[in-house]
Amino acid sequence: QRDVYTLSAKGIVENVLKGYNGTIFAYGQTGTGKTFTIDGDPEDEDDPAKRGVTPQAFWHIFDHVNAHKEHKEYLIRASHLEIYNEEIRDLLGRDPRARLDLKESPDTGVYVKDLSTYVVKDVKQIDHIIAIGKRNRTTGATLMNIKSSRSHSIFTITVEQSETIEGKDLIRVGKLHLVDLAGSERQGKAGTSFDRLKEAARINLSLTALGMVITSLVDGKAHIPYRDSRLTRLLQDSLGGNAHTVMIATISPADVNYEESASTLRYASQARKIENRPRINEDPKDAMLRELHAEIARLKSQLETQEGPSVLPPNDFLAERERLQEERDRMETELELHRQQLEREREEREGTTRKLRMLEEQLISGDEPAKPKSTPASSRDKTSLSKQLEMKKKEMDKLSRKCIAIQDEAAAAHEEFLREQEKLLSHIG
Fold first, then answer.
1. Virtual CA dihedral for 63, 67, 68, 71, nearest 10 degrees?
2. pTM above the 0.90 mark?
């Protein structure tokens, strides 16, 4: 395993640390050791001789980061996905069986929407992340492999680095794709049926699409069929694009698998002829370090523009914040009480208005509210109704003035609340 890493993967990882993109494929017949080559022996991960390409790459990256962190800033991120039956799944997401969409943008190229990405600070954290991804990956038993991978797996490590050169911050971003392809298989030898057979058909179709892309690139065709498969679409940059790429071909030593072994070697021989155009990813727009630097600069600017009296010692600041919070809660309570009182006054005023309208109608028609309609209203009754109407109008005017006063008081309280809120925000800012 050490020799495999040194000869095939070490150079790719070194270039990723310089800001290039890199991809390491493992391709071959099912049961020939692709997953072992990429991941190593899960039963003996502590033995360096049995570590696969992935764990050795982790140690390589973090050894480099620890050796250069005094002069550079680093941000390491990781993501893990699988392509199962042409569906993209997030192996680190809350629902590992949820289907994700493939998108493309002018700035970032092809990407998976809503794919989980985690910041990692050491080998232990990234080992934990990849263990979660392995646990969620789809596997199944066949006659050739009891734990056959039924999906293509892509583990991506993004290395962002920032250094100051001649007073200017220079950001570089390298991406390392570790690709464990599901193995090609024949139904007769693998003994697949039902779901396993459907999976095998999808796997072989995507590998055929990968082969067509390789052939088209080698032949120099104008149209490259990247869109024929999710796998080739995701790895478009790795095949004839902006990346250093290595394909590790795994073959079986058994003579009964001679045809498959010969096919794998022809496949790898074709892939060797592809010419990629790698370049250092300097100052990319989607660098997370750029966003962090911008946020730090904004916070520093806020601190520099703060006036002396508004900056409080830590203890005084906490006490002032608690006082303002209590004042805010008190004012919100008062505003709610004012609102409830206004609502009661409004309902009372509407009731008075309805009574006034009824009295006016009675006065105009000459009816008496307490006597039968057949009895004619006397002059004295009409005078009494007029007095009642005047009293109700005065009462309504009084209620209106009271409502206006309460509204003015509520508006003043609201303005005071806004002023206190601005003070609180200025102290916190």
1. 150
2. no
